[in-house]
Amino acid sequence: MASTALDAAERTAGTGTAVVHGAAERVQAGRQAVIAASGQAVALAKTGWTLIAHRKILAAGVGAGLSALGATSYLAGRRAGGRTHGPITRLTGGRI
Predict the structure, then answer these.
(1) In angstroms, rounded to a whole number, what is the distance separating the alpha carbons of residues 33 and 80?
(2) Looking at residue 54, what DSSP letter applies?
(3) Is residue 13 pLDDT above 70, yes or no?
(4) How do residues 49-76 score in pLDDT, each as one tens digit?
(5) CB atoms within 10 A of CB 89
């Protein structure tokens, strides 16, 4: 009878230990998920702050790119819209 009670107590203790270990593993997994999410939030905030801090440089770069694109398209249009001249007309500067 004492051995039966002892076996039951050991099984109960073993079950309790398994429950505690399972709960501890779930808490650890939740903790790691929170740490990973907070790390991603920090990285996103850092990227956003970098963009805000360098907004003047970004605006200048975008402006320069748009200016270059406009100038290139203007020059290409002027070249395409011009009449073609023959060799004598080019030689005389358009007088003949």
Answers:
(1) 61
(2) T
(3) no
(4) 888 888 888 888 888 999 999 888 888 8
(5) 13
